[in-house]
Design goal:
2 copies of one chain form a homodimer. By secondary structure, the first copy, chain A, is of the alpha+beta class. Chain A has 2 domains: 143 residues, PurM-like, N-terminal domain (60s Ribosomal Protein L30, Chain: A), CATH 3.30.1330; 165 residues, Phosphoribosyl-aminoimidazole Synthetase, Chain A, domain 2 (Alpha-Beta Complex), CATH 3.90.650. Chain A is built from 12 helices and 13 strands. The first copy, chain A, has a 7-stranded mixed β-sheet with strand order 8-10-7-11-9-12-13, sandwiched between helices. In chain A, helix 3 packs parallel to helix 4, helix 3 packs parallel to helix 7 and helix 7 packs antiparallel against helix 12. The first copy, chain A, is globular. Chains A and B meet through helix 1, helix 2, strand 2, strand 3 and helix 3 of A and helix 1, helix 2, strand 2, strand 3 and helix 3 of B.
């Protein structure tokens, strides 16, 4: 089993580059000092970066190298989906121990490349450096969006419907269960939500064409925290429907196993890489039609209110509570290691 | 002294964003899921990424946080200079211990931002995550270059002059001296070469306008190794002039102090972030004029030869030796920690 120490940095880079598909609109690279890329006319660029650190974003045994690469790609793709952008090019940077096996590194790249390719993007560059201690992988993703058509966190208006894709809360529940009993024993739907999130690139593009969305944010910290950020950027308040949030999360037996309130799990720390959307009421039916066509679960979980109304959750009995009393987003420096 | 643990991830990110100058042609961000950027018409993109890892690329006490940020920016800027591209936007990603002081983090960003701004680029996004063990900083830089005008490693032709900017070898000599006696006691010109390399962005742009360069590479591993890469990409050989290489390095007393052959220091592992250029003989005078105007040291150290002639070094007495017998580039996984 050949390691990075055995084959050396330059041979490892040669193999990484050799294993890559050449991307579209790549004039130079990979393998030069920089990649030279050909943007489309009339487009703006959307760029994002996200990194995973060992023992914080994953633990050995929780995920294969290929799935880890795919998950990191999905995390970045989700940021571009939240801007309604189309991904094009990625750079993948590694900090790995000399004992890292080259086969595992190539599998990681293959996982990332496969998930990127499914959304139209290719790896065009990167970096490889040795570390002692925890390993890390960092991806930077560049996409394109029609001039002036990017979504942002700002733009939500009072009366908009708040909707989520997929099942936000499942990834966080999976991590909580995995800490107790190992990832292998986590129920499959939750394990899949954590391990293999589905980037909503095509769905976002179709919604953007339908002019349905006023504001959007990627759900990477937890519904409560990310909603608070969207509301702050938009200068508005929001009222969540507790029952709808729990229904969207679809957590099965996890709350009972964890002895946790299902609503706290649905709102709390969870990196689902799903979308939270503020949808114009008049376009909600169109948005639902797009979701049905693409088989993307889309659940309305509340509505946007005025800035003075704050962030509240309405219980089934009609009582309202402040969102902040129920959940907090994950904090890397204060929170528990994942 | 406030730390990341004390203020938390989101407050740290808020302060990082608050301290940034807004870049040119930035429609959205930083602070959204992705930055939305407005490229110039008729340009291609040049993108690169480079990371520094604690105890490998720097040691505590060798460099201030601000200088470390500036050096990381310079490393990436040098990659774009080697493509004759103009930098525009950067993303800065950190893996830091919870005990990291927020003031030190802001100083690091300020150092990077200052060096980027001097070359026309701004920080438009990034990531912050907690680590245990060694800290790391990763920068991705996006620039622009006129369509079809980017330099590459390929393109050098037999007869081209090989020239270097600055004093390649000094950074490596500084690191070797610092390991023995601490960076503070390294002679100032060498210490500066390691700590504060000068990105050659404006010089490269002027040379590109003068149509003087057939091929280029950033000197980040050492002259011998990077020359070998340029030659492999161009499918040519090269003959270096040993005396010119030593003269260009301008190492002062370092070889004597280190008891090392000056030529081995000039050719060996060294991350100078200078340029190695293959210059058309007919344009050499024009290139020299640009260098003089911009006060960039430019030294011809050899010439490009045919592919069969290999890589050789000619001694003052006229004898030729294979380059491989004299030096090898730095390998992160096999080489010593810097």
């Amino acid at each position: 089993m050949s390691t990075l120490r055995a084959i050396g940095e330059f041979e490892a880079i040669r193999r990484l580059i050799g294993a890559r598909e050449r991307g579209a609109r790549v004039r130079v690279g990979p393998g030069d000092d920089a990649a030279i890329l050909v943007p489309r006319a009339g487009r703006e660029l959307a760029v994002t970066t996200d990194a995973f650190v060992e023992d914080r974003h994953w633990r050995a045994g929780w995920i294969t190298p290929a799935a880890l690469g795919a998950r990191l790609a999905a995390a970045n793709l989700s940021d571009l989906a939240a801007m309604a952008a189309r991904p094009a090019w990625a750079l993948l940077s590694y900090g790995l121990r000399p004992s890292h096996r080259i086969a595992a590194l190539l599998a990681l790249q293959r996982g990332a490349a496969g998930t990127l390719a499914a959304s139209g993007a290719a790896i065009v560059g990167g970096n490889l450096t040795a570390v002692r201690g925890a390993e890390w992988v960092s991806l930077t993703l560049i996409g394109e969006v029609r001039r002036g058509r990017a979504w942002a966190r700002a733009g939500a208006r009072a009366g908009d419907a708040l909707a989520v894709t997929g099942h936000p809360g499942r990834a966080g529940a999976a991590v909580r269960l995995a800490r107790r009993r190992g990832m292998a024993r986590v129920p499959a739907p939750l394990r899949r939500a954590w391990r293999a999130p589905r980037p909503r690139i095509a769905f976002a593009a179709a919604l953007a064409d339908a002019r349905a969305v006023h504001a959007a944010i990627d759900l990477s910290d937890g519904l409560a925290g990310d909603l608070a950020r969207l509301c702050a950027a938009s200068g508005i308040g929001a009222e969540l429907d507790a029952a709808a949030c729990v229904r969207a999360a679809a957590l099965g037996a996890a709350p009972a196993t964890l002895r946790m309130d299902p609503l706290a799990l649905a709102l709390g720390a969870s990196d689902d890489y799903e979308l939270l959307l503020a949808i114009a009421p008049a376009r909600l039916a169109a948005a639902r039609a797009v979701a049905a066509r693409q088989r993307v679960p889309l659940t309305v979980i509340g509505r946007v209110s005025g800035p003075r109304e704050g962030l509240v959750v309405r219980a089934p009995d009609g009582r309202r509570r402040a969102l902040a009393s129920l959940a907090a987003g994950f904090d890397h420096f204060g929170g528990p290691a994942r």
